[in-house]
Every structure is written in C-alpha cells, then in structure tokens.
Amino acid sequence: MTQWLKRIGRAVAIGVAWAVVWAPIAVVIGTTIIDPDNSMDEMWAAIGAYPGFLCAVIFIALVGIAERGRKLDQLSLARAAGWGALAGVVVGVFPFTIGTPTSSVPVPQLALTVIGSFAVMSALSAIGSVLVARISKKRQLRDAPAHLA
C-alpha cells in the first residue's frame, strides 16, 4: 500500500510541475493563435494547466505499464518523448469527442492546433522530466556516503 501511495504522490507532483509549465504557454497559444482578437472569454492559464496535469498523469501511467521495472531516470529520451506524445494525443483528442468547438476557427485547424500542441508539449515535458530525474539521481549518488554509493 505504501508503494502505491508513493507512486501516486510522485505522479501528482509531476502533474503539478507540468501544469505550472503549461499554463503560461497556453496563454501565449490562446491569445496569439486560437483567439488573436480576444473575442473569446477564456481563462487560458487554466486551459493549459488542466491538460498539463492530465498529460503528466497519463504519461506516468503509460511508463508504469509499458516500461515495467524501469525508473524514470532509466528511460531513454526517445522513449520518454514517444510516451509523452501519446499522452498528449490522448488528452488532445478528448475535448473533440465530448463536445463541439465554439471557436470561429475551423475545426480541423483547431484540432491540429490543440492536439499538436498537446503532443509536442507533452513530449518535451516528458524529456524534461527524465532529465530532472537523472539529475536528481546523480545528486543522490554524489551526496550518499561512500559505503552506500
């Protein structure tokens, strides 16, 4: 039970980190590409934070299932990018399956923008997460007593 709680805690922590990074990027994408004339009344930071969190949690779940036995710092950057992109596509497709877009932007352009940006951001975030995990692992090894390292 304790192992599962640790994993859930790590997934939530990574999700919060991705959400914090994604929020300002969503503001830029929302105000320059999707709604350049400010006709929509949207909270772009929240629109970036929620998918960022969901992509991170799905990424961690995919890695946990597909890369069983490997820790995040042991994952190759290419595989991390692939799993991250898949998580981004899953989250990016979701809004188009549950409703109809209210934007004046044509649906194919909107879908490409949303799904594409989620996939790219998720892949980059996954790579960043692996790099942070590797740096953390190196610091742990460096700071560990000689008999434990």
- Outline the low-pLDDT stretches: none
Question: What is the count of structural domains?
Answer: 1
Number of helices: 4
Q: Average pLDDT across residues?
A: 87
Helices and strands, in order, run as HHHH
Proportion of beta-strand residues? under 5%
Structure description:
The chain has 149 residues and is an all-alpha fold. It has one domain (2-143). 77% of the residues lie in helices and 0% in strands. It has helices at 2-34, 44-66, 77-98, 107-143. Helix 2 (44-66) crosses helix 4 (107-143). The mean pLDDT is 87.
Concise overview:
This protein is mainly α and 149 residues long. It has helices at residues 2-34, 44-66, 77-98, 107-143.
Keywords:
149 residues; elongated; 77% helix; mainly alpha; 4 helices
Question: Topology of this protein?
Answer:
Blueprint: H1 2-34, H2 44-66, H3 77-98, H4 107-143
Helix pairs in contact: 1-2, 1-4, 2-3, 2-4, 3-4
